[in-house]
C-alpha cells in the first residue's frame, strides 16, 4: 500500500517539479523582452504601450505569483488534488517547442508593428469558423488554426504567465472538489469548453481518473494536440465544436468549466455561450470560469490590464475586463457563488439551482 507523503516530502517534491519550470519560462520571458527591446531600438515606428492607471511593481508582482504557488501547494496538502504532474514532455519536446516559440517572435513583432492580425482569414477558412475566431490572436502565426500554433501554445502561455499558467488552471479544481466530494465520479460528467491543448483536463483526470470528461474546442489542430496530451487517460472524449451551439442534450452535465476563453469572445458571443452553459448544466450543477482579472478587482493591476491588449492582439479584452458576469449569469438562472484571485487571473463560480424536492401528497 502506498503511504501518503509526509508534509516535508510533499513540499520537497512540489519544489523539485515546479522550480525548474519557473526558471525555464522566466528565462524565456527575459529573452523575449530583450529581443523586443532590440527590435524597438532598430527603428520601431509603433508607439510604446502606455497607461495612466496603476501597475504593480516587481516586488508586488512576484509576491502575488508566490501566493499562487503557496495556494497550489496548500491545495495538495489539503487533499483537494494530488501532487500535480505537468506532463511537459521530454527534454527534446521542450526544446522543440522552445524553438517554435522563438522562431515565431520576428513574425509576431512584424504583425505588432503593422497591426496585421487577419492573416488567418482566407478563402479556405472563411465560413468554416466564426469570423471573430479567424484572427492572429496574440499576433502569433496561424492564430488557433494550425498544428504549429497548437504545439507552440503552451510555451507561449507559460512564458506570458512566468511559468504559472498550469498552477492557475488548477485553481478551478477546488470548486469542483466542493461539489464532487463523496460522490461516485463514474456517475458524474464534466464538460470543458475551449479545452485547447487539454492541459486543464489533464489535471481533472489526475484528480478524478474515472470521471467521464468531454473537451470541446473550435480548433481541429488544438483538439488533435489535446488527444495526444490526454492519451494516457480513459473516459475522456474530445470534440471539435462551437460553444455557441454545444452538441449536448439539455441538463446533461454535472459541471462545466472554461479556462482562458471568455476574454477572446465578443460581448454578444459571451452571452450566447453562457446561455449554452446554463442549458447543458443539470439542476444542482456547477459552472467554473477561469480568466483574467477584471477592472477594479485589484486596483494596482488596472494599468497592467490596459497594457496587455496593446502588446498582444486581444480585440475583445477591454470589453471583457468591464463585463459583469454575475449579472449575466443571474439573468440565465445561474447563482453567483464566489470568485477567488489566482495571480493575474480569477476563478468565478456559479451554480444552477437544484429543483425543489417534490412535495409528498397527503392521502385523502
List the keywords.
single chain; Rossmann fold; 2 domains; seven-stranded mixed sheet; 12 helices
Strand order of the largest sheet: 3-2-1-4-5-7-6
- β content, as a range? 5-15%
Oligomer: single chain
Mean pLDDT: 93
Low-confidence stretches: 359-364
Assign the CATH superfamily of the largest domain. Answer: Vaccinia Virus protein VP39
Name given to the CATH architecture of the largest domain? 3-Layer(aba) Sandwich
How large, in whole angstroms, is the Cα Rg? 21 Å
CATH class of the largest domain, named: Alpha Beta
Compressed to H and E, one letter per element, the order equals: HHHHHHEHEHEEHEHHHEE
Number of domains: 2
> Which shape, going by the Cα principal axes?
globular
What does this structure look like?
It contains twelve helices and seven strands. It is globular, with a radius of gyration of 21 Å. It has two domains: about 10-45 and about 55-160, no CATH class; about 165-350, Vaccinia Virus protein VP39 (Rossmann fold). With about 375 residues, the protein is α/β, with parallel strands linked by helices. The chain has a seven-stranded mixed beta sheet with strand order 3-2-1-4-5-7-6. Strand 1 (about 190-195), helix 7 and strand 2 form a beta-alpha-beta unit. The chain has helices at about 5-40, 60-75, 90-115, 145-160, 165-170, 175-180, 200-205, 220-230, 265-280, 300-310, 315-320, 325-330; strands at about 190-195, 215, 235-240, 255-260, 280-290, 335-340, 345-350. About 45% of the residues lie in helices and about 15% in strands. Helix 3 (about 90-115) crosses helix 4.
